[in-house]
Give the backbone structure.
Amino acid sequence: MAGFEGKMLEVNLSKGSISNSTVSKDIIRKFIGGSGLGAKLMFDRVDPKVDPLSPGNTLFILTGPTSGLSVPGGARFSICAKSPLTNMFGESNSGGTFATELRQAGWDGIIVEGASNKPVYILIEDGKAEIKDASDLWGKNTQEVVDILTKRHEREEAKKPVKMLSIGVAGEKKVRFACICNDKKDFAGRCGMGAVMGSKKLKADVVSRRGNITIVDQENFNELRKTALQKAKDSIICQVLGAQGTNAALGISAMMGDLPAKNWAQGDNMAVAGGIGGDKLSGPPFFLGNTSCHGCMVGCKRHVTIPEGSYEGDVAEGPEYEGVAILGSSLMIGDMAAVIRLNDYCNDYGMDVISCGSTIAMAMDCFERGILTVKDTGGIELKWGDHAAVAKMVKMIAYREGFGDLLAEGSKRAAQKIGKGASEFAIEVKGMEVPGHDPRANYLLGLAYATGSRGACHTADPSYSIGTGIFAWPDIGINLGVNTKQNEGAAVIVKNGQDLGAIYNAMTICYMVVETLNGEIVSGMLNATTGFNYTFNEIKECGERIWQMKRGLSNLMGITAADDKLPKRLLTPNKDGGAAGSAPNLEVMLKEYYPARGLAADGRPTKETLSRLGLNDLSAKLYK
């Protein structure tokens, strides 16, 4: 391969056919790769009104130009489809080694259409691909599936096992927030992509590499890689991530009023946070060591164990901040061993920890208020801090057993069915549960959540990072010293950040290292890997184009301005904690945001915006 060529493996499970295709250079230049390319391909190939769990939905597994090239944060890839959780454009991304293996095997992506009438998996080996029977794997969870398929397909001469994506029972049962497991330690968590795989009866994608990834300008790329590597080594953020992982943020989040507590109803949760912070996860008796994605030196992943107690045993991978914040603090669980095990259960069953924990939190709120009783929950008392009850409910959700079948629909749908005011306790945006950072502590997050291209998200743009006070990207108009508790002026910052987020998710560069990059490095890397000779102004336009394509797709799927909102609870100030008395004024921010973003009053991209970005095909469908 000569750089990023857009070579796709096309798999039609209804027909049982496999073929190759290549995305045009013009499309790659405009949409780059990753979820940017995924949005364009989805627009071209998928009926926006399709049922997300029907054979008509298409699953796009896509790398980007920097995927697998041994740069800090360069191991990621995107998985896109219409989301069964939000019913709009869905994307999830992951790291690890899968993207590297796929590109070394000769493909830049896998496009899966149709649905099989029996369980199958895709095997990519020796430059060929085939659809294999997976009947013996159906009903098994992710860790066991990885063990079985590794033993079945690994080769001694390869000196390392094959790599794979798989789903657990939650994906098979089409839990709407089912995730995709990437080997045992990485996950494409959000938007229910595991349910899409399950609806297609696709249990796994297994890759055995055969070659190397070539680069258009290897010499220049090597110099850029050295620069990026040194900047990452010098970065305070990267150093902290290496020392304590993403959970290093938990203590300061608690102090700032950023950490969710009791389903976002309580501002001060320092007592609970003290038992589950970064020092606890990255210290004795749990911590065994840190690991990295392919080619990355940061080492933010936690290899942990539980040496004693009721949850004693090995753990595939320790929780990230989000798992601790949502399965721990939000549920008022301050037991580190319990949080580690709950996170591990979600991983093995194949469920997004954010959506799973948040949906249980909604049910706990309802139980506390008498909206739900033990008659509803199958005898389980859903009380704050009761990790044993949560463990039971996590399994019930994964297997869609009893009350778990309702919660498997996600907090929005479940609350609507429960009724009696339960929707007030579903903390979601457009159907996707809010991640573990409170917009009452950072108003930029409020606007970003409300308008995010896949629902509430903290990694689609750098709004959260800007709130730390040490993130700046002057090349795109984001400088130090931003007042993140000011409604006026937030719109332009969030808009610029969303464009930057669209760029790094198309390149497939990890969110955690973006603060170490700049326009010169990004342009250089893309030029070295594609041969396009981008200017950074053109790349910025790509970011805007990608964002508007995602937005327009969701508009076609039914999203309007009325959906750009936040839950009432996140607009109501807490009485205690680091953000006491504070709440964003979303109405003020949206009034500035729509014209800055190039959206009409109804929430669609304006015709002028679409014309300027060369999205006339999208305009024709939005304004027919």
